[in-house]
Design goal:
16 helices, alpha+beta
């Protein structure tokens, strides 16, 4: 399962402001101090004895209602994933370096010689209706993903490495030949046969097999075409995690109550109430102790940092925001991205100049005191040697941007530049709504591009709501030339499912032979050699920066304010989840 999710704009606070004044020494010192503070956040709450019972109040900050698609196979939204975290549980436990181990609900055994993965769910892992999770529940997600009637965006070239999945996807086969259930549908084991074994298969989020189950007995009578809108997915989903849904107020709140069949034991809490709140009111909610757990909006750090009786828990998440420059469309019939040879955004010089006109560093410091930071490449530094630390990315340089455009023939006619063929050039950008800083942030970007003579306009003259934004991006709205979006990444670094020719999530829709080759090499059998794989990752990052179809922007520390009376909460990758969170005695 490639655990990529689309993310909103709330965490994006480093998107430039209006024309910024130069920072004085005192302000710089304050920024540096905040950055040092961020690096010292604890990653977990102190371990203390926990009592049974109590209601935990959880704030979820977003300016848009959650869609409520409680299926990892059918939703691409980080919001839907976040609000379901109390019930939705991965099949596999991991170490803190994301390596799969036997601590989770199921075990994994890879056989490189036979090209198989055997997944066996543990006895006693039960759905919240009391039914044992069985082999068919492990196999059914592949049907959901690969059946075109569901319109799932999760079908990828990586999953197509499973024998028979592409034939099922194309309609040539009625079953997936490469997934066996040796003990039958009601057994607890599946064996997946691959065309080729891949180097990242030991890591969670590798993309070559799925890491969630779906209750076949509960969903089997729903036609695939109606699954996404069904009550079983939207109103009354069932889970095998520690909690189940007690009540949903669509888009606004979810009350979670214990799953009495949970395989690890009885959860400590009696209830978790998740409430959606505006990012603009987050700081006040934290200071007034309205919630037990609430994320800090980085632009509001100064307002909350002195709050008593809370612990600020933090980490750098596997996320980033990027500027996507659209040069084609998704061909659903062919199952691949197709470049438009006549795209006005097809000139590499234009894309590079756009990147150099973005003053990300300046604004991250201005708005977040160092809690946000520019990212130089599309591979985060958390991936260690795969990250090419020699690359600086698109640093702010208006002089260089102008020189690139001049050399490429983008001449000025009055205020604006025209295309090399003399035709007018108007570029439309889509950007998500968010907290109160979003409007001036985006207006600043427009001003920066205007400074180099590019007539860039905001889609519809305003910011776009999260769900509407991604609907437009995913459907290739012809009015959009550029967009600012974000990814919550998989814990296995391969970018194949994000930027490959056959990746629906490649929203820029770019395709070229070198990118295809490098992605194949990154995931090839040769890449079992770590040095070789590192070299290919570095080549890929250089190529992506040079082509500039996708320009990396920034990331932020993920900081959460937690009531000091809470124990068991953690941001470690190995954390076993919410069942052991509770109030201290």
């Amino acid at each position: 399962m490639k655990k990529i999710k689309i993310i909103g704009s709330t965490m994006t606070v480093g998107m430039a402001a209006m024309a910024l004044a130069a920072c004085g020494n005192n302000k710089k010192a304050a920024d540096d101090n905040a950055a040092k503070t961020a690096s010292k956040f604890p990653i977990a709450m102190p371990k203390k004895e926990i009592k049974q019972g109590g209601t935990l109040k959880f704030a979820y900050e977003t300016d848009t209602p959650f869609a409520g698609i409680f299926s990892g196979e059918l939703s691409m939204s980080q919001i839907d994933s976040d609000v379901s975290v109390f019930g939705s549980e991965s099949l596999f436990g991991t170490t803190d370096s994301y390596k799969i181990n036997d601590s989770g609900p199921a075990t994994l055994r890879l056989n490189v010689k036979q090209k198989t993965a055997t997944i066996e769910v543990k006895q006693g892992v039960k759905w919240s209706d009391g039914k044992q999770v069985v082999a068919k529940d492990l196999e059914f997600p592949y049907e959901i993903i690969a059946n075109k009637a569901t319109a799932s965006e999760r079908y990828t070239n990586s999953l197509a490495d499973i024998v028979g999945l592409s034939e099922y996807h194309s309609g040539k086969a009625k079953t997936i030949s490469g997934i066996e259930m040796p003990d039958g549908e009601n057994g607890r084991k599946i064996v997946i046969h691959f065309k080729e074994m891949k180097p990242g298969m030991t890591q969670s989020g590798n993309g070559y097999y799925w890491e969630l189950a779906e209750p076949y007995h509960y969903l089997k009578n729903v036609p695939f075409a109606k699954l996404k809108s069904s009550d079983q997915i939207r109103k009354a989903p069932i889970f095998f995690g520690p909690f189940k849904i007690g009540k949903i107020v669509r888009g606004q709140s979810i009350t979670w109550v214990p799953n009495k069949y949970y395989w690890r034991g009885k959860p400590k809490l009696d209830k978790i109430v998740l409430s959606v709140i505006s990012p603009n009111t987050a700081s006040q909610s934290i200071k007034s102790h309205k919630f037990d757990v609430a994320d800090v909006v980085p632009v509001q750090w100064d307002q909350v940092k002195g709050t008593k009786n809370v612990t600020f828990v933090g980490k750098i998440p596997l996320t980033y925001h990027y500027l996507g420059i659209r040069v084609g469309k998704w061909d659903a019939k062919q199952g691949r991205n197709v470049m438009d040879p006549n795209s006005k955004m097809g000139n590499k010089a234009l894309r590079q100049a756009i990147g150099y006109a973005m003053n990300v560093d300046e604004v991250d410091k201005h708005y977040t005191k160092g809690l946000s930071f520019r990212v130089p490449t599309l591979i985060p530094a958390q991936f260690g040697s795969y990250f090419d630390k020699s690359l600086t990315g698109y640093t702010y340089n208006l002089k260089k941007a102008n020189e690139i455009l001049d050399k490429a023939g983008y001449k000025k006619k009055g205020k604006w530049r025209v295309q090399p063929n003399g035709k007018p050039l108007t570029i439309t950008i889509a950007a998500m709504s968010g907290d109160a800083t979003r409007e001036p942030i985006i207006q600043n970007y427009l001003q920066q591009w205007h400074k180099i003579g590019l007539n860039v306009k905001l889609l519809g003259g305003r910011l776009t709501e999260f769900n509407s934004f991604y609907q437009k991006i995913q459907s290739d709205d012809p009015k959009i030339d550029m967009f600012i979006a974000g990814w919550a990444l998989s814990s296995e670094p391969s970018p194949n499912d994000l930027y490959g020719e056959k990746a629906p999530s490649n929203y820029s829709r770019f395709v070229n032979a070198k990118n295809n080759r490098l992605l194949e090499e990154i995931d090839s059998s040769k890449a079992f050699n770590h040095k070789y794989r590192v070299e290919k990752f570095h080549e890929w990052q250089k190529n992506m920066l040079d082509e500039a179809y996708v320009i990396p922007v920034d990331n932020s520390y993920q900081v959460t304010a937690v009531n000091d009376q809470i124990s068991g909460y953690s941001k470690r990758p190995s954390w076993t989840g919410w069942y052991n969170v509770g109030f201290i005695k």
